[in-house]
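anyone else get weird line breaks when pasting these?? whatever heres mine. first is seq + tokens for prot A
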Amino acid sequence: MSDTFDLVVIGGGPGGYVAAIRAAQLGLKTACVEKRGALGGTCLNVGCIPSKALLQSSHHFEAAGHEFAQHGIKVGQLELDLAAMMGRKDKVVSGLTKGIEGLFKKNKVTYVVGSGRIAAGNKVIVTGQDGEQTLQAKNIVIATGSDVTPLPGVTIDEKRIVSSTGALALSSVPKSMVVIGAGVIGLELGSVWRRLGAEVTVIEYLDRALPPFDGEVSKQMQRILEKQGMKFRLKTKVTSAESSDSGVTLTVEPAAGGDAEKIEAEVVLVAIGRRPYTEGLGLEDVGVRVERGFVQVDNHFRTNVPGVYAIGDVIGGAMLAHKAEEEGVAVAEILAGQHGHVNYEAIPSVVYTWPEVATVGATEEQLKQQGVAYKVGKFPFMANSRARANDDADGFVKILADAKTDRILGGHIIGPMAGDLIAEIVLGVEFSAAAEDIARTCHAHPGLGEAVKEAALAVDGRAIHM
């Protein structure tokens, strides 16, 4: 069987399915190939969405056990129904994946289930349950995403030693969990299981949690998580792991070298990052250039092979679903003869712990390294009326602006709803706004967003409520 399309997208994750929908909206005959049998990629099926569902449920559980009383709410014996919590998570995922299928039908995108392999002549060979199918494509977009980065000496079995996938599907709450990696995934999933009763220890090779984030943000967030009960072992590396029916024995040693020691845990989560997924795509056969595992593209997402493009995690940069989505829209518009573009300086990053952490643009460390003169405006949520009324006053908003022009260079938030509040600063970065633009914008009272306004005022040294 052979079908001809203007565009065939390989991969149905955030980058791929968005590229397919946008291309179809622009009049291109489009197909999307996805082997999982469910659209949405890692993000929707075993990443962003199920983790957020568990973060929300576990947050409610912890609040009921430790926070409701001070609000005048008395509860009886608190009991965890983990199966019901997991069932809710699965229902959320199922509903959203079916929603994407509905969007494909609405936009007339052909959904092909199977593994796609690029062949000569811009053909995509799809291998599925019913055998092989050949799709002829004027253009191909590789959007196959990423996979879990393995750790030498530690074999993931998704039972005792789990990746993020296994950590989203544990059948019981472990008494103890060691998280290897103090990045976004490790801290989010570590928070879920700590709230539900596990003793969680995070081991990080570098000298702080959330290493890529602004240094002040990283230190403050680590202190908050420690106050919540999470333990940290920094500047430490894991060299081996041995599993048994009862748990895991890790061998660790100082990152700079030194005596090894053993650490016991019922479950170990490996969360040291992700790597591009290009397995079985036939890239070598057609000559697509790959370096360090990443597909190489130019600033229009073109590979070195005519008609073959790539987006998302597989090309590197920030491995974030929303970054892939922006690239999906951009590449579709380029293929339709428009001028698709992504402003990589305006890509936010969020950690959905509680409080949340959100960031966009440059950190103080980066500005110092670049020799950029800047001003800092900072405002604590402790001084924000809504945060105090909600009893969610940990953290702060921090805005970095050019010392001469006042243009916003970066924004960093620890606090309630930080992932939503950062959008205002992202918009400022996108439009090259000055801190003064936010400072002069009326914000509703009482609202958490007032902390953003006050931080912008603080850039000029005139915060009102501090």
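and prot B, same format (seq, then tokens)
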Amino acid sequence: MDVTVFLCPVSPADDALLPSISAQLIAEERARADRFVVQDARRLYIVAHALLHHALGRHGVVAREFALNDYGKPFLPGTSIRFNVSHTEGLAAVAIAREIEIGVDVELVRDLRDRESVARAVFCQEEIEEIGKCREPLERFFQLWTAKEAVMKATGLGFSMPPKQIGFAGHKPQLVALPPDHGAPQDWWLESTRIGAHWFALAARSRLNGVSRVDLCPSDLVPG
């Protein structure tokens, strides 16, 4: 089983391309993009969803509508394609697979005023203490945060699953704990890596043969 990850940088310099890029979006997505008040959020949304359609197209799928599971995760009914989208300041990511559930998360490494309160909500006490002992606690914070969110998204529950129920061990995080309804931790697959100024995590509810990476730029998303 294989997963393809599509990555695309996003910056204000891309604004002139947004009208053309938006042509890839379905009507519901364009309407949602128009409701954004903050331009940075609007830009990220448009590029990320155009990246999704581009990625689906490379897999022979034209998405005319999406359905949502009970927890709000979008999917394509009647197809074996599974996908997940994430975006943060400066980067959009899409993961595509067939028949296996996947989750992807990207986060810009940045100082957070409320980092302590976020940590208390996301990490167990042992993880908080481990982060505090690291030489680079901010790096470890975002590495573990993205790993947890990728797993939560792969379950289909998102933040409906308490993140403290997911546990990792090791310098390169390995999944060691999650609710039993979601299988044994050793049957999962997790990739965690630094990409430029961002932490990236990909989780799959199955062992994988490999992950392919496709790097694009916003101009690649303009319909040809």
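btw re prot B: DSSP finds six helices and eleven strands in the chain. The longest strand covers residues 2-9.
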